[in-house]
Write a structure and sequence with these properties.
Strand order of the largest sheet: 5-4-3-6-7-9-8
Low-confidence stretches: 1-15, 46-64
Main location: membrane
CATH class of one domain: Alpha Beta
Protein name: Methyltransferase type 11 domain-containing protein
Order of helices and strands: HHHHHHHHEEHHHHEHEHEEHEHEE
InterPro entries: Prob_Methyltransferase, Put_SAM_MeTrfase, SAM-dependent_MTases_sf
Keywords: Glycoprotein, Membrane, Methyltransferase, Signal-anchor, Transferase, Transmembrane, Transmembrane helix
Strand content: 5-15%
Number of strands: 9
Distance between the termini: 113 Å
Mean pLDDT: 87
Radius of gyration: 44 Å
Bound molecules: 2-acetamido-2-deoxy-beta-D-glucopyranose
CATH superfamily of one domain: Vaccinia Virus protein VP39
Pfam families: Methyltransf_29
Structural class: alpha/beta
Helix content: 40-55%
Largest sheet: 7 strands, mixed
């Protein structure tokens, strides 16, 4: 400050010419301002170093010795410092504010985490309605519960019912929400592929929707039996949108072109389908008549073909007066529609669902290619137990071309079938050589029986 005073000495000389009265008034004014500024300073904060000025003003009685210019300069300096400190305070304030926000946000996150930890730990305490919480009204309608109009039912002991849906549905709530988005009473979205994928993920059965499936244009009455069993249905019988092929001739021709498709040559009924199970080669290929001959004539009447492709097993059994229900998935082909067009019963279910049959009812269960080592062991054992359940005592389980590795055959699958309780009537294993002997890939075909007692 001292050096600043010296620098301004020439200016001081010029100011001397202002008359004394004006000088005095100015001094008074400056004093008032200074007092006010000091008050502001005292109340804003101690960060500014004003002590020298305070000393000069109060103790040394500044008026006689201080020129107006130096006072102004002091004032200016003070003002500048004040301004600086004020802006510092503003910056500090802003920083504090953002820190505060950060802490609040962190706390909120922590709380969320805490809640989710709680939720996982206490999931058994969660109410089914909580799980439905963020679903649309229509989705909630499809998943229930619904109050019984007559109140508590003595038969079931409940006063509300839940429509049946797969437990997996709630693991894929976004997909479920999408599936349940449609115009009530109008045409459903053509979302077969999406819906089936949802089924395969464990949302099976899917919830019921209040909409109409798109109707095929130019639908004609089906071909009459028994001709329908071995006829290709008209292209106008189905909606082709979900499939790569857009007509049956494309599906029939598919076997001649490269590319992997499930049941690639199945739609050509004049090709391999024509001869399936008609002959017994003494190995993996069992003949239908040979299998039927293990039971008394006419006692194989009803049954199930799991993953039955285009339904040829059922068609051949129908020719033997046996009624077979065929389960099938529409994996890039209208398998269910095709089976139905042949005049056979198709069921659109995967392999993970409990079979919708009562225990001890079916004479025969057949399955080719579908049950194999792609299914987790635990799940496969559940499936085997369910097949055992629905078969009647003395009923047949024809496990046709089960694929696995040589190492799994005796280590996993033979013990599993024994554990479930099947009795072996016939067993053939054969190496699958098309990908090389070193792959150690095997097929086995088995005719198993549910024991009479
Ligand atoms: C006050 O200080 C500022 C910045 O230091 C300077 O630009 C200004 O000229 C000064 N005013 C007076 C009257 O000395
Ligand atoms: C998290 O939850 C536990 C008890 O459930 C509680 O003691 C803790 O304070 C919670 N923490 C936060 C950040 O909410
Ligand atoms: C966690 O659950 C307990 C009871 O199980 C409850 O008292 C507590 O408030 C819950 N904490 C959070 C953060 O939801
Ligand atoms: C069937 O569809 C294919 C393409 O997928 C097309 O090239 C062919 O002309 C169609 N055939 C008939 C009979 O419509
Ligand atoms: C199937 O049933 C019909 C009528 O009941 C009978 O005429 C026919 O011989 C039966 N076919 C076989 C293979 O048993
Ligand atoms: C499985 O075991 C049987 C007899 O126990 C044996 O003959 C057969 O070679 C074995 N199969 C494989 C693939 O190891």
């Amino acid at each position: 400050m001292g050096s600043a005073e010296d620098d301004h000495l020439p200016k001081k000389q010029t100011h001397k010419s202002i008359n004394d009265q004006t000088k005095y008034k100015l001094k008074l004014l400056v004093l008032i301002i200074l007092t006010n500024l000091l008050t502001i300073y005292i109340f804003t904060g101690p960060s500014l170093n004003l002590h020298p000025i305070l000393k000069n003003t109060i103790n040394d009685s500044p008026f006689p010795s201080f020129g107006s210019t130096s006072l102004l300069q002091e004032l200016n300096a003070t003002k500048n410092e004040l301004e600086t400190s004020r802006s510092q305070i503003i910056v500090l304030h802003l920083q504090l504010k953002s820190t505060n926000q950060l802490v609040t946000e962190l706390l909120a996150q922590l709380n969320l985490l805490n809640q989710s930890i709680n939720r996982t730990a206490d999931s058994s305490l969660l109410n089914f309605n909580d799980l439905l919480d963020d679903l649309s009204k229509e989705a909630k309608l499809g998943l229930g519960p619904h109050k019984l109009p007559l109140g508590l039912s003595p038969r079931s002991g409940i006063d509300e019912v839940y429509p049946s849906v797969g437990g997996g549905c709630l693991m894929y709530k976004e997909d479920l929400a999408q599936y349940m988005t449609y115009n009530v009473g109008k045409e459903c979205p053509v979302d077969d592929v999406f819906a089936q994928r949802l089924m395969l993920k464990g949302c099976e059965p899917l919830p019921i929707r209040r909409c109409h499936p798109k109707a095929p244009a130019g639908y004609v009455e089906p071909i009459p039996l028994p001709k329908s069993l071995w006829s290709t249905p008209p292209d106008t019988s189905i909606i082709w949108d979900p499939y790569t092929c857009k007509n049956y001739s494309c599906l029939i021709e598919r076997r001649k072109f490269p590319g992997f498709y499930d049941c690639k040559d199945c739609f050509d009924l004049q090709f391999r389908e024509k001869t399936r199970w008609q002959f017994d080669n003494g190995g993996l290929d069992f003949g239908m008549d040979q299998v039927m001959a293990t039971r008394r004539q006419g006692t194989i009447r009803i049954g199930l073909d799991i993953g039955g492709g285009v339904g040829t097993f059922a068609a051949r059994m129908k020719e033997r007066n046996v009624t077979i229900v065929t389960t099938s998935m529409n994996l890039d082909g209208p398998f269910n529609s095709f089976i139905a067009s042949r005049g056979l019963i198709s069921m659109h279910v995967g392999v993970s669902q409990r079979l919708p049959f009562f225990q001890n009812t079916l004479d025969i269960v057949h399955s080719m290619h579908i049950l194999s080592n792609w299914i987790p062991d635990t799940m496969l054992e559940l499936i085997m137990y369910d097949i055992y359940r629905v078969l009647r005592p003395g009923g047949l389980f024809w496990l046709d071309h089960f694929f696995c590795l040589g190492t799994q055959l005796n280590a996993t699958y033979v013990p599993m079938l024994e554990r479930v309780g099947f009795k072996k009537l016939r067993w053939n294993a054969g190496m699958k050589l098309d990908r090389g002997i070193d792959k150690n890939e095997w097929y086995f075909s088995a005719l198993l029986e549910k024991p009479m007692s």
